[in-house]
Every structure is written in C-alpha cells, then in structure tokens.
Amino acid sequence: MLACFVPIGAGHFYARHAAAGTIFAIAMIGAVLGSIFFGHLELFRAWMFLIVIDAVGSFLAVRRFNQKRVPPDAVQRQWAMGAVIAAYGLAWLLARSS
Q: What's the pTM?
C-alpha cells in the first residue's frame, strides 16, 4: 500500500529497512519543499540525486532482505545519512561551480 502513495523508497520499507527509508523520505520531502518555497535550484538537484540513490539502495535492500541479511537500524541510519549528506553536498558543489 505504501508504494501507491510513496513510490520512491517503498523498497526500503518492504525490505525491513525502515530506518533508511524514513531518512530518505524526510530528506526528499525537505528538498522538494525547500526548492518550491525558497526557490533554491540546488535543493531540486539534491532531490534528483536522492531519487537515484534511493532507487539503487532500495534494490540492494530488497536483495539483502531476500538473503536474510538485514542490517541493524543503526547501520541503516549511518548509511542513509551519509548518502543524504553526499547528495546535498554534491548539489551544493554543482550550484557553486556554475
């Protein structure tokens, strides 16, 4: 049912990677709202990077779930926060270089 409302990242929730999925969802919503309300194009870029990272991460999360190798929530949070920081940082660097 969640995939109908939030198609991006639904793989994380299916694969018992809720800690990572929640961080990605919050980061994406923040990027989109910040882009809309504050007009910062770099936030829209960050959102696009997060979609790609989340899609690849969801695929890998489902594979780990099927292999019964779901990492603990702390590991999921660390990986997701690192990916979010990387996406926002890359978007910021690209905005500064153009």
A: 0.85
93 in any annotated domain = yes
Q: What is the tens place of the pLDDT at every residue in 52-86? A: 898 888 888 889 999 999 999 999 999 999 999 99
Say how many domains are in the chain. 1
CA distance 8 to 54: 7
Residue 65, domain extent: 9-97
CB-hemisphere CA count at 13 Å for 21? 20
